[in-house]
Amino acid sequence: MVEKVKEALRIKIADINITEISYAERGYHLSIEAQKGNIVSVVELFEGKGFYLADLCCVDYVDYLELVYFFNHHKELCRSRVTLKVESDRPVAPTISHIYTMARWYEREIHEFFGVYFEGHPNLTYLFLHEGIDYYPLRKNQIPIPADDKKLLNSFKPEEEEDAFFINLGPQHPSTHGVLRVVIKMDGEYILSAEPVLGYLHRMHEKMAENRTYQQFLPNPGRMDYMGALNFNLAHVTTVEKLCGIEVPERAQYIRTITCELNRIGSHLLWVGAFLADLGGLTPFLYVFDDREQILDILEAVTGSRLTYCYFRFGGLYNDVDDAFVDATKQFITRLRSRFAMYEKLITKNVIFINRVKGIGIIEQGMIRKYGSSGPVIRSTGMPFDIRKVEPYAAYDKIDFEIPTGTTGDNMDRYMVRMKEMEISLGIIEEAIKKLPSGPFKAEKVPKKLKPPRGDMYHTVESPRGELGVYVVSDESDTPYRMRWRVPSFSNLMTFPALARGTLIADAIATLGSYDIVVPEIDR
Amino acid sequence: MNELMVIINIIGKETVRAIIGLIGVLILVVINALILTWAERKVAGHMQRRIAAKEVGPFGLIQPIADSLKLLGKELLTPVNVDKPLFYLAPVFIFIPVLVSFVVIPFDACLQVKDINVGILVILAFSSLSVFSILIAGWGSNNKYSLIGAVRSVAQNIAYEIPLLLSLLPVIFMVNSLSLKDIVEFQRGGWFVWKWQFFAFLIYFIAAVAETNRTPFDLPEAESELVAGFHTEYSGMRFAIFFLAEYTNIMIVSAVAATFFLGGYLGPVLPGFVWFLIKTYFLVFVILWFRWTFPRVRFDQLLNFSWKILIPVGFVNLIVTGGLLKL
User: What is the model's pTM?
Assistant: First the structure.
């Protein structure tokens, strides 16, 4: 695939700088330097080859800004980084939002954080921020937002029309899972358009990362996604480890796998409860909490916290697990296996439930590429794409497991995929416990103050919601120069406006619930 | 004593009976709501593997009283933008039909406020009035969620009133009377639910759950979609009255089901009204059970179910019953 892309680029676009990169060192295969003149055709070429837009971010190098586009292919791993340099004073870049729909949100984000104006973008308004902010937050120098740009940022206004009315679903609403706001234009019970409004839980974790050492940032990722805190913790830790070249002992790798899978099951369990609550069935919510409680107890015993874990350290773990942990986990596995039959009776075979979710909120395979969706959302469409398999981290390469897929990509498939994933996670844990080697749980000689070599690193893990990518740029200091978090819910949620259009409000809420969005993760 | 008799003679015996009866009904309504709030919490708790209310009083029995005191003590908030007269009237309107319906229900052979020969018509007529007050509440609240809830409620109530009626008509055909007492007495030979009218009972019960806006048909107040539907803007005692009406409605539909299909107050050994209450509260329990088991249906599914399944089946049942009676 790498060769094919290189050749196609060489043929189509003359005069382009392509470098092949060592995947093990940097986390991507290809680095392409595009210019303003040819960036659109480069992106079009990637689109034509069936790539999806994994991430789009910006790095401020003071003299110039660098837009970084990450592409990847669902069928064959080929991570490509396309960079585009723009001037630091009133930067302008061409938009790619007409090629990849997801770029609409990424470009809005870059626009409000860096002040890059995207020519041709339909709606460059605030995504996360609000009026009260006078400087571009992620720029290295304090650059005030010019008045005309502020006016542009502020121009979001739903158009009132006759025969339609607007309803604000959120930020305080029982089924928006936190503080998501969706502006819905409705005609009776039918939705004409739905526009998610983000930023109610925005805390600027990316800026925080720039002001803290790598160790000091350890507790932050868990706060982004409180449901899959360990997975976020792991993403941060493994990225920095790869950047610094720290070897992690085998035992730590296995324990990371076990705890992450426990965390994943906990997240999926809660999702089942919340999804059913969205559909009006309140009892499963309590049942799943019963099961999840066991996971929390197990994880509390080893990590010391129950929700926002910070258990992994650079080169290993905070502490070792003991026999009690192993026994408790084994007990939990038997317990949860016996409970699946009950869930099947209570939920999966319930006629009302089936009628509510079957054939609703269908995501097509062609769509996921435009949006860069990941996780159970894409697996439900029948695409067996799982970072644990394609780019194994921790001990996943030593464990045999299958990837559950759906067929149609509707709400029912997303439910079934998550249920199946829990069973498979139990299998992974079981196998990892069987293979759990003895030995040190921490790498020796990890310096107190990490100063990674100059360079960048893109690393992904599979969080319960999908592909979680961390892009770190290091300048040899003890704080990252730029740390970018590519979060899965963000690009999953972007498909919502397309799915909600023309559906009943009840179905739209079921679809919104089926994404398993975690708002603090979207807002960061 | 003589003076009392004189007063009674002046007012008229029937009036005195009606007044005493209404006071009794009022007490019953309040006690029923207290019991049902407690029962709902307990049923929900045990179905969800938790203990539910237990701190206030033995088994948490005093909890509903504490709750109602709390609601009584709350400030009656009126949002600024509401349509004030309608907003105030809705809780009152929802309460009146509920009270009237109890007048004709026979709790025992001689325990009935008034045996009217069109008894069931009174219940049906007044219970359809409650949709009015829901519409008023939804409109008067000046809230989009409330309005959607109210509109849903109207569509739902109209759709489900028809199967409700269709399921009761065969019984009326067989008894040849609209008086609830006659219907109960007719069942001395066997309850209607076992004899002839099992399908009618099923249709009635499903329609009744929909009429009372309970899960799986709780669309007017669908929490995950409409926050609380038509009573989103209500708080304190006004909210409590909506609650009271909902629980009383549950009891009324269960009482009518018990009267029509389960033999009312008939039963061996125990006194009649005990049998009546056992049957009624068993059905109430089933309705609570539904709520904590099923997810909610979608709006079009709800209407389709009524128009495409319940009403045709109800009609067939009606025609078959009528035909068999003529033979």
Answer: 0.86
How many CA atoms are closer than 13 Å to the CA of B135, on its beta-carbon side? Answer: 11
- Cα–Cα distance between A159 and A154 in angstroms, integer? 14
pLDDT, tens digit, for every residue of A10-32? 777 777 777 778 877 788 888 88
Half-sphere exposure of A256 (CA within 13 A, CB side): 33
Q: What is the pLDDT of residue B1?
A: 67
**Is-contact A507 A367, C-beta < 8 A?**
no
User: How high is the pLDDT of residue A160?
Assistant: 64
Cis ω on the peptide bond leading into residue B216 (within 30° of 0)? yes
pLDDT beneath 50: ranges in chain A: none
Count CB atoms within 10 A of the CB of residue A163.
7
Q: What is the mean pLDDT of residues B99-109?
A: 79
Given an 8 Å threshold on Cβ–Cβ distance, is A281 in contact with B225?
no
**H helix runs in A279-386, sequence order:** 283-303, 323-343, 351-357, 365-371, 376-379
pLDDT of residue B5: 77
State residue B8's pLDDT score: 74
In this structure, the number of other CB atoms found within 10 A of the CB of residue A337 comes to: 14
Suggest the residue from B225, B226, B289 to mutate for an interface test with chain A (most A CBs closer than 10 A): B225
Q: Is the pLDDT of residue B12 over 80?
A: no
Q: Do B224 and A189 touch (CB under 8 A)?
A: no
One-letter amino acid for residue B81 of the chain: N
- Domain parsing of chain A, residue ranges: 2-153, 207-510
Query: Quick check: B87 and B239 in contact, CB under 8 A?
Result: no
Domain A2-153 has CATH 3.30.460.80: yes
* The predicted structure's pLDDT at residue A162: 66
For A281-315, what is each residue's pLDDT tens digit? 888 888 888 888 888 999 888 888 888 888 888 88
* Class of residue B100 by CB neighbours under 10 A (exposed 0-12, middle 13-18, buried 19+): middle
CB atoms within 10 A of CB B267: 16
Read off the pLDDT of residues B141-169 as tens digits, 9 standing for 90 and up.
888 888 888 888 888 888 888 888 888 88
Residue A148 is predicted with a pLDDT of: 81
**End-to-end Cα, chain B, rounded Å:** 58
Contact B241, B91 (CB under 8 A): yes
Query: What is the distance between the alpha carbons of residues A55 and A66, in angstroms, rounded to a whole number?
Result: 14
Minimal CA separation from A333 to chain B, in Å: 20
* Contact between A28 and A37 (Cβ < 8 Å): no
According to CATH, the superfamily of the domain at A207-510 is: Cytochrome-c3 Hydrogenase, chain B (1.10.645.10)
Q: Which tokens sit at B294?
A: 């099923």
Q: Report how many Cβ contacts below 8 Å link chain A to chain B.
A: 77
Cα A219 to Cα A508: distance, rounded to the nearest angstrom = 35
Chain centroid, CA B262 distance in Å: 17
Place of tokens 């062609």: A366
* A-chain residues near B218 (CB < 8 A): 280
Cβ neighbour number for residue B301 with a 10 Å cutoff = 17
Nearest to A286 among B48, B152, B294 (CB): B48
